[in-house]
Fold each of these.
Amino acid sequence: MQKSLLFLAAFLCSSSLALGAHSVTLTCTASIDSVTGYNFYRGTAAGAENFSTPINGSTPISTCGFIDTNVSAGVTYFYVAQAVVVNGSSTTTSANSNEAGSGPVPIAPATNLKAVPQ
Amino acid sequence: MNLILYFVLLQTRVVARFAATVPVDPASNLTAAAEPRSLLAIFGLKHDTVSLTWTASPDLATPATSGTGYAVWRAAGASSNAFSRINSTLTAMPNYHDTTGNRHVIYRYYVVATIGQVAAPRSNIVNVLTP
């Protein structure tokens, strides 16, 4: 049984200069159906998401959103989501949401530039 | 010999005093220190240089790997924003020696961390007066 989804995904990038860490925040509109949760999939090219393993792990996320912290500066990522219905031992997934690109993950700048004439 | 030594010491003091009045851009973390010209530079045996150092971007390895590094930009004039890039290839280490400048010129510098086609925001701008 396919679950219908209406995803209006908005993907935002954020970075932490102090830690040199970055993340991509995924938000989406929940399915109109009653679902168990959502799985999120990532790729580094459009249409090339890796569907073998959700980036959120083996447990679907109960709300339609996820923060992907396993990203690198300067790289653009592409994401899709699937709604998941777990009924006993049976798991059913929806069709893919729309695909959304993050844009390049920001690069932390060089700082504390000094110049000395010699 | 004594006359030469007197000339060297006099010029050293003049350079140091002049450098203390160099206009400094109000960007944060900005520091600029003037040093006396070396004897080699005074007697024309060595090009005047400006040594740039900066804190590396946490997103770039040190040394930076292929396709990543730092672009170095320079403008001439205390308030000039006519920056042009002075390193043709990205600099892998967080330092650079500019040997292409002229004497008695205020140069402004900033650097940009780059990964592939993606650039970070520029660093702070630093002003320096060449000896």
Amino acid sequence: MNIIVTAMHENILISGPITPEIVSAGVSRLGNNTGLGGHSLFLGQVRSDMKGLKKVKAIEYSAYKEMLNKEAGVIKETVLSEYNDVNSIYILHSTGIVRAGEISLLVLVSAGHRHQAIAACTKTVELIKEKLPVWKKEIFEDDTHEWVRDKKA
Amino acid sequence: MEIKVLFFGVLAEVTQSMFRHYSDIKSFSDLKHRIEDEFPEIVHYDFRIAVNSEFINDEPELKNNDEVAFMPPFAGG
């Protein structure tokens, strides 16, 4: 079975945090492909930043779903064409509220050998940051909020 | 022409709406002016445009029933 082709059209959005059970299911879906030699897993976590005297307690993510799933497909194609040893790329991104300390992004890249698994995982994460139409609202402990990178510099 | 406009991130907050319909739009520039007249605060924000889920760098040519998204800088991950 060609994992790559089926993965292209997947919905990568998940409502709420990416729990340990979801991470585990993501790893399990690789099955028992004995041709693979390495998997590189990146988990993005909500950090409790300080903004002045305010502490971030959660992030609320929103996304342009149709465009996001299409762009995620383009990212996968781009990385697969650049790293010929990579067999599959699995991406999940949270939408809605994710509390500090919880996981909001999962990238799992599988390859024949470790070097390309790690390099392609890094590349995928960077492209996600640059290309995916996702926005985040930091929610502080006093329930006020601030959009990340909102006003003109 | 009829245009469906989507607002994301802080722009949804500024316009108090996720989407709006605009009628009798002559061009993208006409649409932008209509939005700026309605929500003057929007000029303080950076945004990129997508038409029917495709990024557009230049001023887009609009067709009837196009979906135009106003998107602040991305902040995924």
